[in-house]
Amino acid sequence: MLTLSFLLRRVLFTLVAIQIFFYTGSAGDTLKLSQFSDCQSDADIIVDRINTEYDATTRQIIFDIAGRSKKVQNVTASLKVEAYGKDVYTKSFNPCDATTFVAGLCPVPTGEFAAKSTETIPAEQASQIPPIAFSIPDIALQATLSLKRLEDGKNVGCVVADLSNGKSVNSKAISYIAGGVAAAALLIGAATSLAGGGSGSGEPGESPGASPSFYQMMGWFGSLATSGMLSINYAPLYVEFTTRFSFSTGLISIPPMQRAIDNMRSKTGGAVTLDNIKNSTKSIVSRELFERANTTQTPLLDQNVTQALGIQKYVEKSGIVQENAFMTVFLVATIVILAIVVAILFFKVILETWALCGSFPKSLTGFRKRYWRTAFRTNVTLIKEFYGNWVVFCIFQFRTGGSWAATLLAAVTLALFSGILLFFIVKIIQTARKHIKSEGSAAGLFENKELWLKYSMFYDVYSKKSWWFFGPVILYNLVKSALLAGLNGRGHGFAQTVSIIVVEAIMLVLYIFIRPCERRRFNIVNISIQFVRVLQMAALLVFVQELKVERSTQTVMGFALVIVTSVFTGLLVLLMVINGFYTCCKDNPHRKRRKEAEKLKRESEFFLDPKNNDTSYRTEETMEQGPIKPYRDRDL
Prior knowledge:
Blueprint: H1 4-24, E1 30-38, E2 45-55, E3 60-69, E4 75-83, E5 86-93, E6 111-120, H2 123-126, E7 141-149, E8 155-164, H3 172-195, H4 214-226, H5 236-243, H6 255-267, H7 274-278, H8 287-292, H9 310-317, H10 325-357, H11 365-369, H12 371-385, H13 387-400, H14 404-439, H15 444-447, H16 449-455, H17 470-486, H18 493-514, H19 520-539, H20 551-585, H21 589-608, H22 620-624
Antiparallel strand pairs: 1-2, 1-8, 2-3, 3-6, 4-5, 4-7, 7-8
Helix pairs in contact: 1-20, 3-4, 3-20, 5-20, 10-12, 13-14, 13-17, 17-18, 18-19, 19-20
């Protein structure tokens, strides 16, 4: 009888079959050691070096190990192979038996030793290793070698080896490409702003030209990053993929910065010891963390340490100790804000020098006059766009604790940013209600230049009837981030995932039915991004422990998610470039309509002025054109 699990696996395997061909090329039939770790504390036998290899053609697994022993002892060895969470091969043997003799382990000598063993896995058991293990990156295949004392059966040594097919999505190139895309989005946004005659502070009725914009791309990268922070049991390849976008959340591991944070925490109540680093999680703490702890030749972490889930695991995979997460994000944000202020100041210096040396473009006059307002608007926009990310790491700091200074800083900045957003929300609503009461609509927010320069960074992409939509967007970011950080931890994965799916689905419904943006392509991009987010979160349900989905199915789903999100990201980049060129070459319709309205207003005021009826005020050129038509008779 066909089960739902079987059908799901068949569908996913079929879907990924073509993707594997394009993504990995021809696959080999050999799995080799990628990393290893001890799985027993206070062991008598310590493994210093290991080389493990599995050949699917011969069905042989080779162990070549070297280590140290505290004393001479006879042992029995146990070899276990796991593929995607399932035991596919288990065998115990005596290294001193004639049929299973292993030199170096019979007996284990005092001091250093070396041993090599080759075992053939029966065909029936070898067939349980899925073919995807040789094709999909970052597979979940482990081999465990345990040594027990022959006399009493006590465990005296244990090592776990992770096997790899040599393919991985954990490539820095992904981060570099994503960073390049974000930089390109920023440059295209600046170019379209200048091409549209923007003053640096925007013009009434104008919305950013290119879509996806810089903030949309960074928001998408941020959603990819946070999709790897749920408290669920991910396929390794998906976690590796999402950590390549950790820069979009401010998690950038810079060794000098991390050492400075360690020093700050050690002086403000935070513990910074080797045990603190070890307890973070097994096998995911980078060598860099050990170097910061001033250790050399440190043994690998104990396997019996409970593996972390959620934000903690994601932070550690990014090369940062969990206690340093908030301070890392804070320092990166501070650097970015200062860099923006300096860049804007540098641009102003260039414009002032330009004005002194020659003619000055009229389109840049507004920026020249409103430098400080532009800098303030830019920083408020950053707070608005990355508020959700800030909520995540502030709540995570509250729950992690440690340094009182870091916790206090998290509380102060969260209150400050929330207060800034709340202030603008209240002011915009009050202003809109005043205009609705006097004029019947909130169009004044778009048509009044002074109001536009004050508040437009909150609603510039929205239509006049949907000016209020920035409120639900901010609330959406707040609720989703609070659920992500508040339900972080083991045992909350199902509730966390389902609740975020509900939030994402509600936001998708709002985008579809309200279509709040002034420009159609902005609506299309926002709906597309939100639709993919909902599908992405729904697909992540297969990693929830309570649903007990087979590990092989989880791995295939993880790879499918990597492919789908990569393709969608590529489409966003292509759309961004095309729209950028289109906007640079075409007049901004919002600006064009506003300029025409201003021209008509000036002309009407001119004719209403009695002194303008005196022909002496008319030039020779206008006199030759004949009588001036009344304003009401003009073709509008």
